[in-house]
């Protein structure tokens, strides 16, 4: 295993995490728009018009629902709308809150959440609608619920964030693994093949001749005689011995 095997595995793992997060997010959004979104679960009322809907206790979404003949490039304009809701006898009226949502388009069918109803108690409610809907095809208000798995979106978002962090860490690891430590310089030894200039001539050691050796011995004897260490007779005897040595 080389020094870069680990970073490569980390990069692949980070990319796979990112792919899983993005793919999961796309699939969840598609399923939310087509399968999980029960935008008309409790019925629809034409605009303008009136009717009755069975509403459960809790939160109910109110969506503007219409048909189009072409695309909706540049956004979908929601016309001015009015709604009135009468609760059954003895029940409080629902609380209506503006809650503009994103536009969902499937084939030629378009819907936009515009209100949220807080219903205190389930029952059959009378609904009246009105609005400037000239030019819209079969406009109506749909009463339903948001059944999209919101926790899946959070999981997918977490996977994407985790993948980005893993990818950043893997790239940093990869960059650091490519830096090799510099070797510690050692002493430089140059032989004849590495010497950049001309090779100097060899230095020979000095070997004294026999004549020089005898001369040095005579000088030593003279110094001993002058110092009184040798007598004249001893000096002459040693001198003859040195001179007679060939």
From TrEMBL:
What the entry lists under InterPro entries is as follows:
SHOCT
The UniProt keyword set, sorted, is: Membrane, Transmembrane, Transmembrane helix
Q: Name one Pfam family in it.
A: SHOCT
Q: What protein name applies here?
A: SHOCT domain-containing protein
Q: Which organism is it from?
A: Mycolicibacterium obuense
Domain annotation SHOCT: ranges: 217-243
Q: Which residues cross the membrane?
A: 12-36, 151-175
């Amino acid at each position: 295993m080389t020094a870069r095997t680990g970073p490569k595995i980390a990069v692949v793992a980070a990319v796979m995490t990112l792919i899983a997060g993005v793919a999961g997010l796309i699939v969840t959004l598609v399923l939310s728009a087509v399968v999980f979104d029960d935008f008309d679960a409790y019925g629809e009322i034409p605009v303008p018009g009136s009717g009755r809907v069975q509403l459960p206790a809790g939160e109910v979404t109110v969506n503007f629902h219409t048909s189009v003949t072409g695309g909706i490039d540049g956004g979908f304009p929601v016309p001015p709308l009015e709604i009135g809701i009468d609760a059954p006898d003895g029940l409080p009226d629902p609380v209506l809150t503006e809650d503009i949502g994103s536009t969902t388009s499937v084939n030629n069918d378009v819907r936009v959440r515009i209100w949220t109803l807080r219903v205190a108690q389930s029952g059959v409610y009378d609904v009246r609608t009105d609005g400037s809907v000239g030019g819209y095809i079969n406009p109506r208000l749909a009463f339903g619920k948001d059944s999209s798995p919101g926790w899946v979106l959070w999981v997918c978002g977490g996977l994407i964030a985790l993948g980005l962090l893993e990818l950043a860490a893997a790239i940093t690891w990869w960059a650091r693994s490519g830096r090799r430590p510099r070797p510690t310089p050692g002493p430089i030894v140059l032989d004849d093949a590495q010497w950049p200039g001309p090779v100097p001539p060899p230095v020979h050691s000095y070997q004294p001749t026999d004549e020089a050796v005898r001369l040095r011995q005579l000088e030593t004897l003279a110094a001993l005689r002058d110092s009184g260490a040798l007598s004249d007779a001893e000096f002459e005897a040693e001198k003859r011995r040195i001179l007679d040595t060939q």
